[in-house]
Design goal:
The chain has 213 residues and is an all-alpha fold. The protein folds into two domains: 19-103, Tetratricopeptide repeat domain (Serine Threonine Protein Phosphatase 5, Tetratricopeptide repeat); 136-213, Serine Threonine Protein Phosphatase 5, Tetratricopeptide repeat, CATH 1.25.40. The chain has helices at residues 20-34, 38-51, 56-68, 72-85, 92-102, 106-119, 124-136, 140-153, 158-173, 186-197, 204-211. Helix 4 (72-85) packs antiparallel against helix 5. It starts with 19 loop residues before the first helix and ends with a helix.
C-alpha cells in the first residue's frame, strides 16, 4: 500500500526578523544540506535555535533532517513547536501528519489531515493520506471514501486507485470471503487495472491473485 512522502519545500534564503547572525547561520545550513553535509547543516540549525527558538525556517529544516535520519520523535517536537509559533506555516501540518505515520500514530495523522481539509478541501493528497491512515486503523470503508474523493479531485491518481483496489479486496477478505469470485472482485480489479494502466506496477501481485481468473 502506498503512503505519502515527507515534504521538503524549497528553502528561500531571506533575512528575516531574527537578526543577521541567525540569518547567516541559516544560509550556511541550507548550503550544507544542499551539498549533502547533513551533520554540518544540523550543527548550524542547533546554534540558531539555541538563541532563537522560534526561528520558523530553522525548525522546519531541522525537522526535515530529523525525519530523514529516522529521528521521528525529534522531528515531531520541532514541528509541534513550529505549529505553535505559526499554525499556517507552509508544509508544517503536512509534514507532521507524515511524522505521525512513521511513529504509528495514525489517529494523530488523521487529526492533522482533518485540519488540512478544513483549510483546503481540494487537495487530493490530503484525502489520500487520510485514507491510508484509516486503512491502517482497519476503517476500510472510511479509507475507500477518502480514496474516492482523492480520485474525484485527481482522476489520474494511480496510487489512489491502487490503494482503493487493495482496500476493496480487504473489505471482502476481512468479512471471511478469502476467495472472492470474479464477479465479487470485479470492482476492486477495475481499480487495480486502472492503477496498472497509469503505470503502477505495485499492483501486479493483487491482479495475478484476484483478477486473472
Amino acid at each position: 500500500m502506498h503512503k505519502t512522502i515527507f515534504l521538503f519545500l524549497s528553502i528561500l534564503i531571506a533575512i528575516i526578523s531574527f537578526g543577521q547572525s541567525s540569518s547567516d547561520l541559516y544560509k550556511k545550513s541550507v548550503d550544507a544540506i544542499n551539498n549533502g553535509k547533513v551533520e554540518k547543516s544540523l550543527s548550524y540549525l542547533d546554534k540558531i535555535l539555541k538563541t532563537d527558538p522560534n526561528y520558523k525556517d530553522a525548525l522546519f529544516l531541522r525537522a526535515y533532517i530529523y525525519y530523514n535520519t529516522q529521528k521521528y520523535d525529534l522531528a515531531l517536537t520541532d514541528l509541534d513547536n513550529l505549529i505553535k509559533v505559526d499554525s499556517a506555516f507552509n508544509g508544517a501540518l503536512e509534514n507532521r501528519a507524515q511524522v505521525k505515520i512513521s511513529l504509528g500514530d495514525y489517529k494523530g495523522s488523521i487529526a492533522d489531515d482533518d485540519i488540512r481539509i478544513k483549510l483546503d478541501s481540494t487537495n487530493a493528497k490530503i484525502y489520500f493520506n487520510r485514507g491510508y491512515c484509516k486503512g491502517m486503523l482497519f476503517d476500510i470503508e472510511g479509507s475507500i471514501k477518502d480514496y474516492d474523493k482523492a480520485i474525484e479531485l485527481d482522476p489520474n491518481y494511480k496510487e489512489a486507485y491502487a490503494n482503493r483496489g487493495s482496500a476493496k479486496i480487504n473489505l471482502l477478505t476481512t468479512k471471511g470471503n478469502l476467495h472472492p469470485s470474479k464477479e465479487q472482485s470485479a470492482d476492486a480489479c477495475n481499480d487495480l487495472n486502472k492503477a496498472k494502466q497509469l503505470g503502477d506496477d505495485s499492483v501486479d501481485d493483487l491482479i495475478f491473485i484476484y483478477c486473472n481468473k
